[in-house]
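User: I'm curious whether this sequence folds into something compact or stays loose and floppy. Could you predict its structure so I can see for myself?
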Amino acid sequence: MNIDLKKIGKIALFIAIPLIVGGISALITMNQMELFETVAKPPLAPPKWLFPVAWTILYILMGIASYFLYIADSEESKEALTLYWVQLFFNFFWSIIFFNLQAYWFAAIWLFIMWTIILILLIKSYKIDKRAFWLLLPYFLWTTFAFYLNVGIAILN
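Assistant: Here's the prediction. I'll summarize afterward.
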């Protein structure tokens, strides 16, 4: 069995990037996370402990999906990766807008833009590499749920 350390290193890098982006965003918002306990929430709001667990899993799946898009090495995959990096930028700032600034309606608009980018990324991924599509689908569904929570919190508060 021949282990390709270069390939493993690239996969690890692609997984590490969203984990680092999410980790830095979480550090910036860490002191504001108690806010989630105090605001009025819509039905189906999960407990606070679920968010870091879900996001860790989603970031790992996102990283693997981005690796599959990277190795596809086509013009379409380059466009998809550009969308991936743009949505990751939006992902980074959403929690800062929501928790630190407590700008719930602006965060909802920001999240809707991010959701739209992820939807386009999902559609492109389906055409490029179905593995990337299936790995990104939970992220899209979670973002849809996050949008519901964000709008619900904006309405109730």
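Summary: The radius of gyration is 16 Å. DSSP finds six helices and no strands in the chain.
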